[in-house]
């Protein structure tokens, strides 16, 4: 798997985990980076997590505008995380 593909997967993992644990994604990211036994989180993955966190409100607004028959909270967690 290429580095950027792996980074996108790590970012998705962090974002999904943060939603499941109802924690701030940046905090989950920091926890992941602090543990030696966790898979490495690249700077690119961190940038993606930070970007989604900073723009989440606008992203959710766009999702709401374009999704038909689904509110953002009603979407399955994995789908919502991927779309963000």
Binned, the helix content reads: over 70%
Mean pLDDT figure: 93
Under the CATH scheme, the architecture is Orthogonal Bundle
Shape: elongated
Question: Which consecutive residue ranges, at least 5 long each, have pLDDT under 50?
Answer: none
CATH class: Mainly Alpha
Short structural description:
With 84 residues, this protein is mainly alpha-helical.
Task: Give an overview in words.
- The protein is mostly helical and 84 residues long.
- The chain has a single domain (3-83), classed as NusB-like (N-utilizing Substance Protein B Homolog, Chain A).
- The protein contains 4 helices and no strands.
- It has helices at 3-21, 25-34, 43-66, 77-83.
- The model has no long low-confidence stretch (mean pLDDT 93).
Brief descriptors of the model:
N-utilizing Substance Protein B Homolog, Chain A; mainly alpha; 0% strand; 4 helices; 84 residues; single chain; elongated
How does the SSE layout of this entry go?
Layout: H1 3-21, H2 25-34, H3 43-66, H4 77-83
């Amino acid at each position: 798997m290429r580095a950027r593909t792996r980074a996108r997967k790590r970012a998705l993992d962090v974002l999904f985990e943060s939603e499941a644990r109802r924690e701030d994604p940046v905090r989950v990211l920091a926890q992941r980076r602090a543990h030696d036994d966790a898979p490495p989180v690249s700077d690119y993955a961190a940038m993606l997590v930070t970007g989604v966190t900073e723009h989440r409100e606008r992203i959710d607004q766009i999702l709401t505008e374009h999704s038909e028959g689904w509110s953002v909270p009603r979407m399955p967690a994995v789908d919502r995380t991927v779309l963000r």
